[in-house]
Amino acid sequence: LGLCISRASASVLNLNCCLVLLPMCRVLLAFLRGSQKVASKKTRRLLDKSKTFHVTCGVTICIFSVLHVAAHLVNALNFSENYNEDFLALNAANYRGEDPRKLLFATVPGLTGVIMVLVLFLMCTASTYAIRVSNYDIFWYTHNLFFVFYMLLMLHVSGGVLKYQTNLEEHPPGCFNPNKTLQENMTVPTAFEELFPGYTTEPFPEDLSVPEPFVQNNFMRICSEGPKFQSHFPETWFWISGPLCLYCMERLYRYIRSNKPVTITSVISHPSNVLEVRMMKDDFKARPGQYVILHCPRVSALESHPFTLTMCPTDTKATIGVHLKVVGDWTERFRDLLLLHSNQDTEILPIFQQRRYPKLYVDGPFGSPFEESLNYEVSLCVAGGIGVTPFASILNTLLDDWKRYKLRRLYFIWVCRDIESFRWFADLLCMLHDKLWQENRPDYVNIQLYLSQTDGMQKIIGEKYQALNSRLLIGRPQWKLLFGEIAKCNRRKTIGVFCCGPNKISKILHKLSNSSNSYGTRFEYNKESFS
């Protein structure tokens, strides 16, 4: 039973160790998302579940690893206690009663298995939400132990503990070996052996006929030789070699693509600990809603982090930009390196000081579900705090030229705790509002700003923000009423719902998107999820 469970769990582990790497191939996912061959919107939405798929495979690996280890602990005990000299090739133990701990710590399969369990334990515990939020560095460094895990996995399956019979035709299961049976059952008296020391029992004559009823018995066949066993060829290599090579080739391609540092043109410190970095990179193309991975060697030699593009390159400008919230050690060190005087609220560094910027490498761009927001006729975009960054690039793109896209109406909902947060993109919203009014399309974008916490100040400071002050509401949105109003105004249409914010808001929007309405309006839910 232990061998059966270990073999079955190993097959499940092979499959999941193969699949868990595929969602991490970001370039492949971005290519599929932007490829014309994947024309179905529903199919492209499946790519948004890449992180969920990765986590599911990881949890499955943990569960079946426990089952696999438990089965092999039973196997080690059985190999020791049930040692049989008749089948030396099948015995993992060297003698009866051998300490099972030797099989675990003194053999290649056992030792690599123990180390893999320790590595997997570190990766799993560091992947919990509490550790990722409190100390992302621990999660990042331990997760990169996956390469050690896969190297040990290849060594683990090369031990050849489990074997199979190679001569089933010559020695079928349950066969009868006359020579061996007679030699084992025949006993010679001791006195006879003393008188005739050279006497040996004659082997069973090969030409002696066996009674026909004995031969025709359903459960008895004559075997011509003893059983022969050989180790299984490690099937794990077939499962993981392809995805592992694909992942390694992609990482090599990403390294070559991002080995040249970008040119930082300006750094702006916004209210509420938000930093904006604008830069330029040669031959860089990106679609609205995509994200990049930033790597600054002076901050960390190995660590890198994803940030959504808030400004994409266009035909008229080659500048790209990101907004990042300073909430951890990496972003704090990055901010201190970029800002000459970090205590100032706002600072735009001039061109002649660019030599003081640290080297910054940009890897990407990579796809996200927000790319689909321009492919709907009507889209509802909901942002919570700094979650507005994916929509900033979309608004910038619409400001550049909104007529080239399928989108004909955009509902933009932005919820913030403090009034100063709206100033991150207040200028962008006002410029887009004024442009649409000038082109006689004021209904193209419906902007609603919600201030969830207030201290009596209810207006965005500045006369130029009057268009936003009239759209500023106190409290939280009434999501059910909002969905009902949007469904009523867009009867029998499919509306794309895009959310980047707290899980609480995400769950509410997901539930409302799946609920039916009397207007025949269909809501399709999408959520930001960095892979």
What does this structure look like?
- Mean pLDDT is 79; it is low at 182-186, 199-204, 213-219 and 341-355.
- The chain starts with a helix and ends with a strand.
- The strands form 4 sheets. A 6-stranded antiparallel β-sheet has the order 5-6-9-8-7-10. A 6-stranded parallel β-sheet has the order 14-13-12-11-15-16, sandwiched between helices.
- Helix 6 packs antiparallel against helix 8 and helix 6 (108-126) runs antiparallel to helix 9 (146-156).
- It is α/β, with parallel strands linked by helices and 531 residues long.
- It has helices spanning 2-19, 26-34, 41-46, 50-81, 100-105, 108-126, 129-134, 136-143, 146-156, 178-185, 190-195, 212-215, 236-257, 329-338, 389-400, 426-438, 466-469, 479-489, 503-514; strands at 163-165, 175-176, 221-222, 229-231, 263-270, 274-280, 291-295, 305-311, 319-325, 361-366, 378-384, 409-416, 445-451, 472-474, 494-500, 522-527.
- The protein has 3 domains: 1-165 and 233-249; 262-340 and 356-367, Translation factors (Elongation Factor Tu (Ef-tu), domain 3, Beta Barrel); 369-530, Rossmann fold.
- The chain is 41% helix and 17% strand.
- It is built from 19 helices and 16 strands.
- Helix 15 links the parallel strand 11 and strand 12.
Oligomer: single chain
- What does the overall shape look like? elongated
Structural class: alpha/beta
Strand order of the largest sheet: 5-6-9-8-7-10
Number of helical stretches of at least 4 residues: 19
Radius of gyration: 34 Å
- Biggest sheet, open or closed, and with what strands and sense? 6 strands, antiparallel
* Mean pLDDT over all positions: 79
- Tell me what portion of residues adopts beta-strand conformation: 15-25%
Helix share, percent: 40-55%
Instruction: Please give the number of β-strands.
Output: 16
Low-confidence stretches: 182-186, 199-204, 213-219, 341-355
